[in-house]
């Protein structure tokens, strides 16, 4: 690995010259204009990640079907997002990264609940039982699962302060010289200095797995679209938002980079964002291509129909 020394920055653990409310709530020390821009972009990314499943969820409800979604794609999405969230929490990534990871999983629970409902339950119900009540019941189950997940992963009470400042502590444990007041890294892998403990190392590995799953997991959906020669059932808005969200997410992390140590610790999440965004861009290209083909076929069928009528 390249020498970390010259390119590694240090941070004031009390964030004396930074924006205190950001440091207090998010644990990020925003003490210059570049970090402020990075933080703002990170918030934009977080807001965008609140939105992508809304158009797809609406499309599924309108069509009363999830036929446009590949099961392999959905399963890989759930697995990858779970790994991403667990890895971000174990390695004490930025608060925004942890929040985004949890939002991913919550959205997955909602879509998975909808998928199960429309593929296993909906068509077995009598017509008079297919109203909003059944859908709301499905959403209630998903909401309960999300609440349980967030309750277990988010900090409470005495752990809040430690959670908010976790990122600064992890960075300082390695970047500040031995005169630092922080205790030495106990139980950390000696062969790679960027990890604080074996738990930290395990979280990093889980993050790497998530990145691989993100990049590989999009392929089944692309193949599914190709075989059907259609993207019917998929919401274009979902892909537009995910591309924008991944782009802003990656940019915010890179702009907040304080050196090689920071870069290597965040690498799985950066690669995951770039890979996911690129493959979703390919899905957008499929959407336009197959929409164009479908329009051409409709025009051809209409022309043939008019010809038959004239004869």
Domains, number? 1
Largest sheet: none
C-alpha end-to-end distance: 76 Å
- State which percent range the strand residues make up: under 5%
Average pLDDT works out at 72
Specify the helix fraction band: over 70%
Structural class based on helices, strands and sheet pairing: mainly alpha
Number of helices: 11
- Low-confidence blocks of residues: 1-10, 149-186
Envelope shape: elongated
- The H-and-E topology, N to C, reads as HHHHHHHHHHH
Count of extended strands: 0
Taking Cα atoms only, what radius of gyration do you get, to the nearest Å? 23 Å
Overview of this structure, please?
- The protein is mostly helical and 311 residues long.
- The protein has one domain.
- Helix content is 71%, strand content 0%.
- The chain contains 11 helices and no strands.
- Helix 2 packs parallel to helix 5, helix 2 runs antiparallel to helix 10 and helix 4 runs antiparallel to helix 9.
- InterPro entries: LAAT-1, PQ-loop_rpt.
Summarize the model shown.
With 311 residues, this protein is an all-alpha fold. The protein has one domain (20-177, 192-310). Helix content is 71%, strand content 0%.
């Amino acid at each position: 690995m390249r020498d970390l020394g010259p390119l590694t920055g240090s941070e004031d653990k009390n964030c004396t010259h930074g924006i205190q409310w950001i440091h207090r709530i998010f644990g990020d020390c925003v003490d210059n204009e570049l970090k402020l821009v990075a933080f703002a972009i990170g918030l934009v990314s977080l807001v965008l990640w609140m939105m992508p499943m809304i158009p797809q969820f609406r499309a599924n409800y309108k069509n009363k079907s999830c036929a446009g979604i590949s099961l392999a794609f959905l399963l890989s999405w759930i697995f990858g997002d779970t790994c991403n969230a667990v890895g971000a929490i174990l390695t004490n990534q930025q608060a925004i990264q942890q929040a985004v990871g949890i939002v991913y999983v919550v959205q997955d629970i909602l879509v998975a609940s909808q998928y199960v409902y429309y593929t296993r339950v909906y068509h077995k119900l009598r017509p008079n039982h297919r109203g909003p009540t059944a859908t709301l019941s499905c959403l209630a189950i998903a909401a309960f699962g999300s609440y349980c997940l967030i309750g277990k992963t988010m900090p409470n009470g005495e752990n809040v302060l430690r959670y908010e400042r976790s990122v600064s502590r992890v960075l300082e444990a390695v970047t500040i010289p031995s005169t630092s007041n922080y205790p030495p890294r106990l139980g950390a892998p000696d062969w790679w200095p960027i990890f604080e403990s074996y738990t930290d190392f395990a979280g990093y590995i889980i993050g790497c797995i998530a990145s691989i799953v993100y990049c590989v997991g999009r392929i089944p959906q692309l193949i599914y679209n190709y075989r059907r020669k259609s993207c019917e059932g998929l919401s274009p808005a979902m892909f537009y938002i995910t591309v924008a969200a991944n782009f802003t997410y990656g940019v915010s992390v890179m702009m907040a980079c304080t050196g090689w140590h920071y870069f290597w610790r965040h690498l799985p999440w950066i690669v995951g964002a770039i890979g996911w965004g690129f493959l979703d861009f390919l899905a957008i290209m499929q959407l336009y291509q197959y929409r164009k083909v479908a329009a051409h076929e409709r025009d051809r069928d209409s022309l043939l129909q008019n010809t038959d009528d004239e004869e």
